Input
Amino acid sequence: MTYLTYLPIKLALSFLFILLASSCSTESITNNAVIVNNPLENPEDGPRAGNPDGNSPIPLEADLENINNPDTVIGNGTPASCNCDAVVAAVAKGGKIVFNCGTEPVTIRMDRPAKVFNNTKPDVIIDGGGLVTLSGNGTTRILYMNTCDQNQIWTTSHCQNQDSPRLTVQNITFADGNSSNEAQYDGGGAIWVRGGRFKAVNSRFFNNVCAGTGPDVGGGAIRVFSQFNNLPVYVVNSTFGGAEGFGNIASNGGGISSIGVSWTIINSVFTHNKAIGSGGNPSQSGTPGGGSGGAIYNDGNSVSLSLSGTKIEANEVNAYGSSIFFVSNDHSGDIKINNSTIQNNIGGSWYPVYPSISMHSDTPIVVTNSTIR
Output
């Protein structure tokens, strides 16, 4: 049976890396950094996952999740055995989910979202083994988690701040998700998350879309709210777009969008994503609103955006922030950019400090060893 990917060699490499780091005092590597094996470095189809030039250290909590002894194995070794019904059932059950669809890349076409139930296992890990693409087929969102949705079962009296479910997607591709028809929980063409924790490692997001107009709606690929104790979403070795013809599209936040959420993005790529709304937020008179954050749309109060080893290029907007739209309404948020390249993003205005980054002029921003132009 050929299912995923938590390679035994990874443990040995991680141990060796820690030994080397501890023995070389001149190396600026944190003691808890890990080596993340990436099966999507050289995929047969589409851009690779992650930035090949990114070499920023990855903290232990941003590592791949262990999928030994999986709770569900989707498929019996053939592509036909891996289908939407099986994915929906596995995600509803929760726990560790892997795939056995054969030895070649496979696309599973979804006709409805797979939805996490909040009263199952506290960890929901979906690992595609570097071979699986979940496709919305241009008609549906792909994955949904919401601790405040009664249909998915309330498990606490404080659904907006609870520690689980903890959803991780890793070694997998999300393509052609479309949440444009979602009315109540809009945005998030591929993935929509509220509550608990969320993490994406070694993941690719291609041609996902959500509502194309609106002052605050967004996240062509991912939209996130209400992370436990304001802990960050980790995005590691992942690609949003990556080449012409693969970008994600939204009113705001062509790649990702959030309200009240912090992000730590490491060794990742955002290119060719678009924010296609118009009129900004609040929307100008006579406009539907939106069009901000070609790659990233980050709104809230005490939120932080950290970019390390990340490339943001060739994203496009109609309003503000062709690379990044970052608004801390109470002026308490901050941005950190390290070992990253942000360039050749297109359109927009309101760039008080750096090109393509829309933010309040008094927002603390620390830029090290990076190119922004």
Observations:
- Residues 8-372 form one domain.
- The first helix runs from residue 8 to 23.
- The chain has one domain: 8-372.
